[in-house]
Amino acid sequence: MTWNPDSWQARAAQQQVQYPDPTALAKVVDEMRRLPPLVTSWEVESLREQLARAARGEAFLLQGGDCAESFDDCRPDAIAAKLKILMQMSLVLVHGTRRPVIRVGRIAGQYAKPRSADTETKGGVTLPSYRGDIVNREAFTESDRTPDPVLMLRGYERAALTLNFVRALADGGFADLHHPEYWDISFADGAHHALEYRRIVDQIRESISFVTAITGMDSALLKRVDFFTSHEGLALLYEAAQTRAVPRRPGFYNLSTHMPWIGMRTAQLDGAHVEFHRGIQNPLGIKIGPAMTAEWLTELLGALDPERVPGRITLIARMGAGNVGEHLPRLVEAVKKMGRRPLWVCDPMHGNTESTPQGYKTRRFDKILAELEESFAVHESLGSSLGGVHFEMTGEDVTECVGGARGLVEADLERAYRTRVDPRLNYEQALELALLVARHLRKG
Ligand code: PEP
Ligand code: CO
Questions:
Q1: Whole-number Å distance between alpha carbons of 368 and 320
Q2: With 395 labelled, which of 20, 23, 229, 287 sits at a CA distance of 20 to 30 A?
Q3: Is any atom of ligand 1 closer than 6 Å to the C-beta of 345?
Q4: Does the CB atom of residue 350 touch ligand 1 within 6 A?
């Protein structure tokens, strides 16, 4: 069947919204089609090659960032903090894995959210659910909750501003290991893992001085890092508007991000999201939960990667602690039976969400860690390997997940609970998890 960037329109699309004014919508989509892309096909191909390496066990993927980015958080300090914690985690993971770490943010476009309910009722009033800043506004009024197409343009612009700043930081010395001040932990003295982290940074720095001394090269490569973007490919009008053919390469690229992923609620084989993603050249993530069957996964891989392109598919399992042993092995076996070798990643966040009696959505650090450990164990026992991790996290001192070395408890949540949708690891919790994963990998 022929594919084009709009062929998904003929399929049933889950999680889409009704825009009240089709003329205004068409105008926005048309404008977005004419604007320059956010990323290039060169970068997309480079990421795909790196992911292929990770699938072969030669690199490790660190994917992380907000559950839902908000337009208000398009601020320099928040962006720099996010980049910094991802850099620090990746350094720890390089040390643990002795492999290159591929850094991919949930950033510069993670603005659309799937919701389990279409509407929300408060005090007898029922309004459409908040679906992310690119769709509608969070405030509980009819006008705020009505989908507004102009928000897609605002989202595209925010994504461009974010990416512009990230690129400048990643290129301009922010990642330079010769500058310890950039690598320092911000609340150093209070941080429980500060010592272990500092030891790792010092060791890496010493290795660098050693190589510099014996080779006489002060590698410019150490002064910049690759950093890629990803988001859920959910709002298909936004994605399709930035999907284009490029000169001198076959096929179409979604140039709104390097790596879109298909969320768990939109992976229907005959649905619009699978139709859209099958036709783009980007590497794709696929979220898989406990409801995924071996047959469904087999067919999804057939539809999305018929040519078995190395690096094309990253399977992001999110089973929940205690469920991994039951659900992951059959999927790993099914994939092996097909003779495929996708990159397996663990998202220990989305299967571990719970609500406190006070009504906060939270996640327990112990469960997040348990799911990671169960996943490593399942892959090891099947002769497969877990090649990456996927976190919802922020570089700031929020209180959204409980546990971790500082021992956050439910009563702490109200202090700095700021997420728009799902609870994120804070700066210390994220670094601690990276240290624990690195420790595990060093042993293995
Ligand atoms: C997400 O990654 O924010 C998300 C909604 O995940 P999932 O599709 O796995 O539930
Ligand atoms: Co989420």
A1: 8
A2: 287
A3: no
A4: yes
Could you identify the atom of ligand 1 that is nearest to the CA of residue 106?
2
> Quick check: CB of 424 below 6 Å from ligand 1?
no
Q: Give whole-number Cα distances, 406 to 66, 283, 352, in Å.
A: 21, 37, 20
The Å distance, Cα 249 to ligand 2 centre, comes to: 34
- Please work out whether the CB of residue 264 comes within 6 Å of at least one atom of ligand 1: yes
327 lines ligand 1 (CB under 6 A): no
Encode 11-21: b = buried (16+ Cβ within 10 Å), e = exposed.
eebebbbebee
Cα atoms found within 13 Å of the Cα of residue 229, Cβ hemisphere only: 27
**Which stretches of 279-364 are DSSP H helices?**
294-304, 324-337
Query: What does the alpha-carbon distance between residue 220 and residue 234 come to, in Å, rounded to a whole number?
Result: 38
Domains of the chain: 7-443 (3.20.20.70)
Q: Report pLDDT digits (tens) over 421-444.
A: 999 999 999 999 999 999 888 876
> Angle 232-237-242 (CA atoms, 0-180°, nearest 5)?
80
- 0.70 surpassed by pTM: yes
C-alpha span between 119 and 392 (Å, rounded)? 25
The identity of residue 408, as a single letter, is: L
The beta-strand segments (E) located in 66-118 are: 101-106
Please name every residue paired with 54 in a beta bridge, in sequence order, or none if there are none: none
Structure confidence by residue, pLDDT tens digits, 140-159 = 999 999 999 999 999 999 99
The per-residue pLDDT for range 349-397, each reduced to its tens digit, is: 999 999 999 999 999 999 999 999 999 999 999 999 999 999 999 999 9
Tokens 């014996």 sit on residue: 214
Residue nearest to atom 4 of ligand 1 (CA): 263
Q: Are 368 and 348 in contact (CB under 8 A)?
A: yes
Phi-psi region of 15 (alpha: psi -120 to 50; beta: other; left: phi over 0): left
